[in-house]
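Entry type: protein chain
Record version: 2
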Amino acid sequence: MSAVQTPPSPALPLDGERILALAARSMFELFENASEGMLLIDRDARVVWINEPYRRFLPAMGFAREEDFVGQPVTQVIDNTQMHEVLSTGKPILIDLLGNKAGTFVVSRIPLRDEAGAVIGVLGIVLFDQSSAQMRALTTQFARLQQQLQDAQRELDAQRSSAGGLARRTKYTLASFVGVSPAAVEVKRQARRAAQSGSPVLLLGETGTGKELLAHGIHAASARALGPF
């Protein structure tokens, strides 16, 4: 009785272009299966595709039909989105909090480039869609890790600086402002907008509400981040 032989496995591609194509397809399938939803915008910042899991968010966002959502400018159909910013800068936002009428989500935004390296679209991925309690635990851990990174950066800056050689830097960034409520997300969105302006910013609020943290965060996100605070 002869032994049963299994057919040889298909050979892996050995050229770089085919390897990248295979990896990209595998990563896309992984994200599509593991995430809570995905959408794609084109170079004009219009939504051109959403996958099946993402469709469940549409009613809460005010859209009864997919046709009313797809084809529209992303800033008009998704509150507080940063997809257009990624399209403009070409820089990914790997982990961020997004809050809108559909809830609060942990999202990732990845620019897509053509063979010449030009950004031709952005892929948005909803990584987590969880209850408020779970989200608070996640954001607390994220803030702790972010603070550790900032502490390490400040220590490195101090080691590199000569006596009195560096201007005072900010202690916080906008990532340090932790909150998942719609109000907190809106404050963070407005702070990002203020950071892009060259005008003075007046922060009003009671003691202990985070005015100093926001002031540091706005400065750190502005074009004057390397200057004195």
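Comment: The longest strand covers residues 103-113.
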